[in-house]
Amino acid sequence: MPPEAAEMMAETLDSGFLAEGKKVEAFAERIAQFIGNPRVVPVNSCTMALTIAFKLSGVGPGAEVISTPLTCIAGNEPIRMLGGRPVWADVDRSTGMVTAETIEPLISSQTRAIYLVHKEGAPAEIESIYALAKDHGLRVIEDAAHAFGAKRRTHRIGAIGDFVCFSFQAIKHITTGDGGALLCSNNMDYELAKKAKWFGIDRDAREGRDVWHEDIPDWGFKGNMNDIAGTLGLAQIKHIEWILERFHQNGRRYDALLENTPGIKILRRDPLDYQTYWGYTVLVENRNTVIDALDEAGIDAAQIHVRNDRYSMFTSDSRELPNTDWFDDRELSIPCGWWLKEDDQARIIEILKKVAR
């Protein structure tokens, strides 16, 4: 936690204004400058950002969204909440992410959107997915919960793209305690998203008006960020450059030291991308044994997300996913945060090399 956060928070608490106001506005401006996209809608969670994106993409009763089960449940529950259904796409074994090739056969007349995840801060192969979406008149929702600051080639994730959703939950690269942001590619979606986050009303356009006596043509959510969260975000984002670089350096060090290690497979990564390595994923055959050995040494390791299609809420949507099965059986994430020192990584790698097979 930045040392200046307490002083900044005291100022906000003493101001008498705690709802969405100037602090949230300032935080949104900092995000816009950092990402390179002025159309930033701050919200109270990444889940809310995703929910708004699905709604604006036309997801409702009977609609389908081509999705991945290898994500947080927060990525797929909004589809169900809006009355739609996820259609599971298989993944590439070398990345754990969906591709245009796994998505295309699943497109139907009911498809309204494609949902993809920049897994643990590694940018997905979005160019081919967007080309496919354009051919079929579909929207793309990018889950960038782990990818704030990541770059796909020359641009940051969120600078372009239909809907890009970020998380500022407690354990992300920067935090607002809980919170998120939705970035839009055009002004129409941006204006609609601002309304959708607050009961269908644009808070930014209500000066001097009693909006409650005006017509509200479409429903929305109670999903806005407040100035307490915005203040914490302002304190955190001042440090984003060095935080990201430490994550990135730790990830690149793992890449170099674990490459060609017997019993350990590292993920395929595009060397032209800047990856945020929110977690570092390796693929091992004996995951439970590796977890036990690391745990005994006081090192936390786990599969970050349980595949969503195992939950009974999605039973009716199950289908054969051989690559997902293969990846899911082997996926293991190890610490990679800014606080990790080289000798910490050396100790983790030593244990991995001893027990992975």
Overall description:
This protein has 357 residues and is an alpha/beta fold. It has 2 domains: 5-237, Aspartate Aminotransferase, domain 2, CATH 3.40.640; 240-355, Aspartate Aminotransferase, domain 1 (Alpha-Beta Complex). Helix content is 37%, strand content 13%. It is built from 12 helices and 12 strands. It has helices at residues 5-15, 22-35, 46-56, 73-81, 100-103, 126-136, 187-196, 227-237, 240-258, 287-296, 322-330, 342-355, and strands spanning 40-43, 64-67, 85-88, 111-117, 139-143, 151-152, 155-156, 163-167, 180-184, 265-266, 280-283, 331-334. The chain has a 7-stranded mixed beta sheet with strand order 1-9-8-5-4-2-3, sandwiched between helices. Helix 6 links the parallel strand 4 (111-117) and strand 5. Helix 10 crosses helix 12 (342-355). The longest helix has 19 residues, at 240-258. It starts with a helix and ends with a helix.
